Amino acid sequence: MKLAEALLLRSEYQKKIESLQSRILANIKVQENDRPLENPQELIKAVFELSDQLCALIQKINARNGEVTLPTGQTLSEAIVERDMLMKKRNMLASIVAKAQEKDYRLTHAEVKMNVVVSVEETQKQIDSLSQKFRELDTRIQETNWTTEAE
Q1: What's residue 98's pLDDT?
Q2: Contacts of residue 92, Cβ cutoff 8 Å, sequence gap at least 6
Q3: How many C-beta atoms lie closer than 10 Å to residue 65's C-beta?
Q4: Is the pLDDT of residue 78 over 80?
Q5: Partners of 75 in beta bridges
Q6: What is the rounded radius of gyration, in angstroms, for the C-alpha atoms of the chain?
Q7: Which of 134, 6, 139 is CA-nearest to residue 63?
């Protein structure tokens, strides 16, 4: 199994666990003399089994991410952390631009006028640069995920 397939399986397991948890909560209380649609104990057992499988899968993924290197020499783990930080920086700058572009509505001339104190143009250039770096790094990560065995 390739790393990319393992990541897809991890996502599937996580979604299934969330679904099972919702089903448990929906079936833990019933009206007197009624029966739940599903047995909560069986659902709990399924969550625990799936959680154990997910744990083993994540451990395998994390171990490989620490071993595998990109063509740049950076480990996959390091690249993932860098990619995540690029996205956090980009999102922070995007929120600044969005706030700066909000219109201030004044009902009278006596109300305080607000001025933007950052350059939207320069901030947008930074966003574009971070977005490009993110895309390039993400492409290298995805390529490595699809060419590397998970085991």
Answers
A1: 95
A2: none
A3: 22
A4: yes
A5: 69
A6: 24
A7: 6
